[in-house]
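Dear Dr. H.,

I hope your travels went smoothly. While you were away I took the liberty of generating a structure for the chain from your last submission, since the lab meeting agenda had it listed for discussion. I wanted you to have the full record in hand beforehand rather than looking at slides cold. The sequence, exactly as received, is reproduced here:
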Amino acid sequence: MAVPHFSVSLITRGSGRSAVLSAAYRHCAKMAYQREARTIDYTRKTGLLHEEFVIPDNAPEWLQSMITDRSVPDAAEAFWNKVEDFEKRSDAQLAKEVTIALPIELTSAQNIALVRDFVEQHISAKGMVADWVYHDAPGNPHVHLMTTLRPLTQQGFGAKKVAVLGPDGYPIRNDAGKIVYELWAGSLDDFNALRDGWFACQNRHLTLAGLDLRIDGRSFEKQGIELAPTLHLGAGTKAIERKATAEAKTLSLERLQLQEDLRSENARRLQRRPEIVLDLITRERSVFDERDVAKILHRYVDDPAVFRSLMARILQSP
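The corresponding predicted structure, in token form, is as follows:
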């Protein structure tokens, strides 16, 4: 069943990461990391199905020239090295990464069309670069999309904060007469709009494919579903970390333990009220069968005996 996972994170030097390293890993490519005069090689990594490097229609000449006649990974390598060169701080925020689960009900071609539609409407239309890859992991097709935190200018990159403009096109000022600024890459409200835009786009493409399936990206609490939200633990996170400190390892173990605790709590809630599974599935589709119920239940229950018991109780529900 389609999974409503949509998350945004920052790639920062302060956490020991690099935009070039992240791009190389995502593209399963070999890239030169100019800042440290070394080469990163992820060509042995598998799972890459499709990749695109998309620039906005009004992109400056330097960017258009940079990617002309270059392959997608070569364009990404050149662009992210330029970002790394521009950002001087040792704790600089380098890029924003969006990780999106794709519906397994769509074919690869349909999912590519879905992501292209989303990128055109919600990334390129806002003047942002979209460096995205489609990883076809078994049972978990997903997209990693990287974009910048600064606007493109004719000379390179602009400020991360821009003035908030009023209806008249002039900067808004606060009570003290000072200009009000906001992050160009977006606030929490912008993230919510981006996420909602993805789910609306996904649901539209599911409809176009003739599928009776709808995805609700709202939290369980807002949907009235009595389950605790679990964590998304990316399989490739450790592989792209350059500095695995003791503190980082401790935090990773803590996240794994928290995930197990949440799954155990959800299993207990389902044993008390197995009909919660029906609450979940009827929000996604109007027609379903035993296999669909099993897929939903498997998200929250690993123990075979508990799984069989809950399946029996759910199927006996009126």
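Two observations you may find useful: The chain has ten helices and nine strands. The first helix runs from residue 19 to 27.

With kind regards,
E. W.
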